[in-house]
Amino acid sequence: MDKWDLMLLEVIKDPIFANIKPAQPRPTSNDRLIKSFNEITDFVEQNGRIPDKNGPFAEKSLMKRLEGIIADEAKREKCRPYDTLNLLNTEIEKTEDEKLAEIVKDPIFNVSAESSSLFDIPAYMKEAEERAKAEYIAKRKKCEDFDEYEPMFKNVHQKLKDGSCKLVKFKETHMTEGTFFVVGGVLTYLDKVHALKKDNNHKIDGRTRCIYENGTESDILIRTLGKSIYIDGYTVQFLDEDINEYVQKKFTVGDLDVSSGIIYVLRSMSEDEQIKSIKNLYKIGFTRKSVEERIANAKHEPTYLYADVEIVAEWQVYNIKAIELETAIHRLFRNVQLALSAGIYVPKEWYVVPYHIIEEGITRLINGERIKYDARLQTIITE
Q1: What is the DSSP letter of 296?
Q2: Of the listed ranges 97-101, 311-315, 358-362, the one predicted with least confidence
Q3: Crossing angle for the helix pair 322-332 and 355-366, nearest 10 degrees?
Q4: Bridge pairing between strands 217-218 and 350-352
Q5: Alpha carbon distance 334, 287 (integer Å)
Q6: Phi-psi region for residue 343, left (φ > 0), alpha (ψ -120 to 50) or beta?
Q7: Domain definitions of the chain by residue range
């Protein structure tokens, strides 16, 4: 190494160059095209329709992009591997104005401005058309059984107000059934995850049933939901509270109580050695349907570890607060919760605890006893 090389090395070692990093490669036109097409796909997933060319500026821009891609064969072929919603085969419907403009362009209609004005569509007719379109979109998203969920939304709002729950930054591990999120300022409940499969990028994706506080619902893809929360939302986190105070305050049973569902305990029938080898592994859950209906598709759902399950026990519970009882049970055994990931979805209702302890815990919680679980001694202790 000559003198100049040594001098150059000394210069480079100077602390002033410590934070200098190689320039990042610039996005190619192909990268920008795919990113643009994915933005259109995200919009369709979130809204259940293609962008409206007469909508707000951002929505109109998305529609222009989609039209441009569909019209260009080269662009269509580049985007086709990412077309999970079959958008590239969409027949872009022309507006009445565009249809009329094409007709008027015909040489046969080369008439005076006064005569061509006969083809103008009156403003009041356009307004009626837009109203009808908006009403249709609202109707098809209505949640028919929203009355079952409305008390839960009110409860979360009250908890946010009194400080017993808070908004936290979203993580993928939060994507579990029964979790509340705030998305674009709207409180959202992830009721169910189903139809899971690998997407074109070999990542786990699937449909959800999301209930919104405005009385609507959607079957948005779970990955699209996650993107939306990450960009413009939060997870609702319930703050830890003494389990006994929680039961005393939130769970009561009276003579006029109405049956609201079933608390169940399941055992996995999985042949996966990682799961099969875990002794005393049980799922504790809640359903408003029969347990048989709830587990009918177990081997295709991550919440059941992609395997059939065996029903170990069922308890009929009462009032909407039965959901609160399920939460109390989960909190009682939170220290022995199974840590296992099924792709983007993390099942959180599986616990490593002897069945007789689960049975004792549920019975004593229903009776309102002040208890806690000592995982080291595997025993329930009265306080």
Answers
A1: T
A2: 97-101
A3: 130
A4: unpaired
A5: 20
A6: left
A7: 29-89, 96-140, 146-238, 243-382
